[in-house]
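Hi C.,

You asked whether I'd gotten around to modeling the 688-residue construct. I have! Everything is below, sequence then structure, no commentary in between.
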Amino acid sequence: MKKLFIRFCLVSAFVFAFCTLMNLLGLFRFLEYKSYDGRMARTAGLFKADENIAVVIIDQDSLDWAKENLGWSWPWPRSSYGDMVRFFNMGNANCVAFDMMYTEPSVYGKDDDESFASANREFGRTAIAVHFLESDSGSVQAVYPIPELRDSAGVLSSVVSAKDFDTVVRRNRYGFVMDGNVFPQLGTAPLLAAGETTREELRQKIEAGETVNLRFTKSLNDYIPYSAMQILQSYAALSNAEEDDGADEESDDLLAPEDFEGMTVFVGVYAPGLFDICSTPVSQMYPGMGVHVSLLDTLRNNNQIKNANSPLVTSLLIALMSLLGSAFIPLISVVKKRSAAFALTAMGFVLPLVLYVGLCYALFAWGIWIALVAPVTAFILSFASSTAAGYFSEGRQKKYIKTAFSQYLSPIVIDELVADPAKLKLGGERKQITCYFSDVQGFTSISEGLDPAELTAFLNEYTSEMSDVIMNSGGTIDKYEGDAIIAFWNAPTDQEDHALRAVEASISCQERLEQMQEELVKISHKSVKQRIGLNTGYAVVGNMGSRMRFNYTMLGDSVNLAARLEGQNKSFGTYTMCSAETKNAAVEHGTKLKFRELAKLQVVGKKEAVTVFEPMSPSVFAKREKELETFAEALKEFYSANFAKAKELFQSIASSDAAAKNYLEKCTEFIATPPDADWDGRWIATSK
């Protein structure tokens, strides 16, 4: 325990020092920003867009409508924006903010600019954009709108967002101060217009270099969206109604100015190729206007993300995670049972990570940003380093066991012994497994035609390839008996999907054998086929034999049934057969293989019949689908003792299906000598 404690302290201290240095050097910054983006994207759905913010978009539909009905090409006349301001003025909106630059006079003439300017003067709360160009030296140059619009604006506002070093917009400024004048950000201008803040308050925040970590919703479309076409149509209808003494026609598409009372309205271009885009935590193609909208929403609803990533706080978190990463290994090392040690190791790794990451997300949803990457890296490094140290210090005993038993036991069993040397004793356990028996069809005649060298080469080639398939699927080879291969799944390691593994490995073995035909025929001079039997059930598995020599094997009725099913392939002309237990368990765990029911089979030594199936790949099933449908229909008639009808159906496919051919003979037999009245459809095997 003293050594374990020393190891724990040394690993924790080393990892803490390393990760703290990395954090102070800024090497985690990029990944931390990406984790920030992930938290923002996954918590965005928890927040609703402010209902007092409306977005008017000049979209493609609006552009098409204006061109077709008004003859406007882009850019639109400035009078159109004046009409929008007049419409919102009629409804007593709080502020209208234009995310558009007006640095050049209107192509439609001076009167066009004056139309927009006069609407701004009448409203008094229009926010017009100013663009600030920042040089590498730190100097700032302002690009103002034309004088008419500059002088008529209620608020001149900055539209330059604050970008992090990776060009992602996660925060925004309060505005700019230039030549003693305060230019609020387009998102803070409505607060100034509504009297919710003052220029002096903004000046203090701007000069202090403060920024706002924005809280984004999932999309700009979460805010109340209106098209510019709707606004202009609604204003035109109201204007026409006044000229016609109120005789306007109501339309579902028209809006009432009163709907915008007390609201802040952002106006911007949203047509492809015209609007500015930026990268944000929720989208790499986010409309620039959405950043200003998010700023207003964040400030008005006090949803900004508070940065708690001070060097001290982050160092404390790194220290905590370094200690947690090292703490479990000394505790786990005293656990002898491998399964328990593995479970504790997994829990010791996964649980702290899940809890810490969950804490980071929960705090983020509450508006607090703490470091995720540096502490998690510290935990992983601490856990890995402590595990590696334990491996090297305890490796000698494991190396001895592997060397001593590698010639006798499978690698999986050796791993069990390495984890728990106490298992080097006789004994077994009862557990559910899937058993596999196979042998080569006509092996006796094959072996008689081969000399010892050829027979050895044949068996080595065949068993090696089949064993590779079985073991790659997680199966355990029990033994070889001549040409027979006996294996099982779900022991010694637990495999919840052991039936699926076994039946899919069986089909893979058949497919691999087919691929090997050419090379095997060169040795055996005959076509090589194998029969496979599978069954799932409870058996005793463990080390069995004498104290001097034992084998990891299986015993039980379920094992015997698998052996019987392998032999009963001969009765149906099939090569792979499994019990209903195996088939049902494989289907439950999602196998894509297909199965056809073969029989209610009563094997030798059993009083009860078991339903057996032939598994096959989806491609084989598709090729034989009509034939198999006929077989299923015939089998139903056979179970119902309608032997004449069954015979007719079986005969129609007997030339291409060996199972149908065998059933044809059985039907003929039962027609001549009917079974007992209480016969339940079973096929009684007469040989093993």
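If it helps when you're writing up: Residues 373-405 form the longest helix (33 residues).

Thanks,
B.
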